[in-house]
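**User:** Hello, beginner here. Are you able to go through the protein record under this note? It all follows right here:
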Amino acid sequence: MNQNLLANIRIVLVEPAGALNVGSIARIMKNMGLTQLVLVKPRCDRYSEEARQMAVHAVDVLENALIVDSLPAALTGCQRAIATTVRSRSVPIKLETPPVVIPWLLTPNIKSALLFGAEDRGLSNDELKYAQRFVCIQSNPAYPSLNLAQAVAICTYELYQTWLKMSNNPQQTVISKPEIVAKDFMPTNAPIDVLEGYYQHLEAVLLEIGYLYPHTAPVKMEKFRRLYNKANLQPEEVAMLRGILRQIRWATKNQSNLRND
């Protein structure tokens, strides 16, 4: 199985605060064959002595880490994203365990990301909306909170174990698991940033025509995101949907002009 499957996966840390954690995560990534580390608005110095000491022989992962100002920028070009969360939200989401959902990222020719939130708050609702699936690491309810580096270690270990199994059976495109159905591995060809452009376009048009109201828009848009994530949209399908939105705008504007005449 091609090493490229692991090379296509980004580990994205949103506002990491601890240099020790970032250094540990760099080491864990190298242990598990991963190289793409992306830091969104880091609150620590990846070049600090603390980070370098924890990275040990993975200083190259630290030095090559991409620093970006927003989560959408971190996901540019990605077609799949899984977010780690234990949050309950206004719109119900399906929380899956690492063995069930992590293999979804290992699909040929698909760029993917695994998202982790800041140590003190996790991922916000606004940040979670960029993911298509959600992983929850089950732990003792009496003390369920995991350290950031520990959470990354559990998820990346699962990634590497899946990759090893696929490598030992090159004829398999995916690992056969009873929890995972074949349709889950159909390519989600439309990049996340392309989908995000569509969601913004859709929200603007629905507000204009009165289907959405500002105070209800966030919840309604979350439901649309869930709906479209199930569809695994391809780029040409997103283009078609945006064409419909442009036509709605044209028709609304022209009808308004006719009434004024």
Q: What stands out?
A: The two ends are 66 Å apart (CA to CA). The chain has two domains: 4-179, 189-260.
